Amino acid sequence: MTRAEKAAQFRKLAAQRILIKDGPYGTAIQNYALDEAGYSNGRSFNHDQKGNNDILNVTRPEIIGEICQRYIDAGADLLATNTFNANAISQADYGAESMVREINLAAARIIRERVDAAATPDRPLFVAGALGPTNKTLSVSPDVNNPGHRDVSFDYVRDVYREQIEALLEGGSTSSWSRRSSIRSTPRRRWWLPMRLARHGARSSRSWSPVP
Question: DSSP strand E in the chain: where?
Fold first, then answer.
């Protein structure tokens, strides 16, 4: 089934019934009580990787697969990748920005393998590439004395998300899931995939579901 056909199937099912998305990976990973050695798992890094949940797609794929399987067994229709911080901006905190493509490819393949093994004609499942907000902002200056200052440019953030999305799609994602208003640009390349954006604020919560 092509990505366009999978997107059409997703929209058709969503029009018929409520589709259930899986739960968070962060809290599920906490249950494993990993120390730094548990995160790096014998791989050499220049920075301490404890807390870098996204690196586990590469160093501990069995953990991510186990979590995904539990969500499948619980009845989830939409299985997201463990890639909330798998972008160059966020991974720079761990010195792993050069591994973004590797992390996202591995993440999508882990979920794709579990989904393909569990899906049936009567129970189609979908893989969503998860995108997080990064730790930078384009709308507010980090310097109160210089309101026009930005730590990153619009074009750079666009390219950061493009790198992540392309790897997720190559790895097997058929849709993209973005939390908060983190993506404000449209990459020049177009993909046939459903995208859902959810923004959460202190006073209200809004969701948008644009058709790409």
Answer: 78-80, 126-131, 175-179, 195-200, 205-208
Work out how many domains the chain is built from and give that number: 1
Q: What is the pTM of this model?
A: 0.83
Three-state DSSP class for residue 120: strand
Domain that holds residue 32: 3-208
List the CATH number of the domain containing 109. Answer: 3.20.20.330
Q: CA 108, CA 172: separation in Å to the nearest integer?
A: 5
Q: d(Cα 51, Cα 6) in Å, to the nearest integer?
A: 34
Provide the edge-to-edge strand list for the sheet that holds 205-208: 78-80, 126-131, 175-179, 195-200, 205-208
17-74 confidence digits (pLDDT tens): 999 999 999 999 999 999 999 999 999 999 999 999 999 999 999 999 999 999 999 9
Q: What does the longest C-alpha to C-alpha distance in the chain come to? A: 59
pLDDT tens-digit readout, 129-178: 999 988 888 888 888 888 888 888 889 999 999 999 999 999 999 876 66
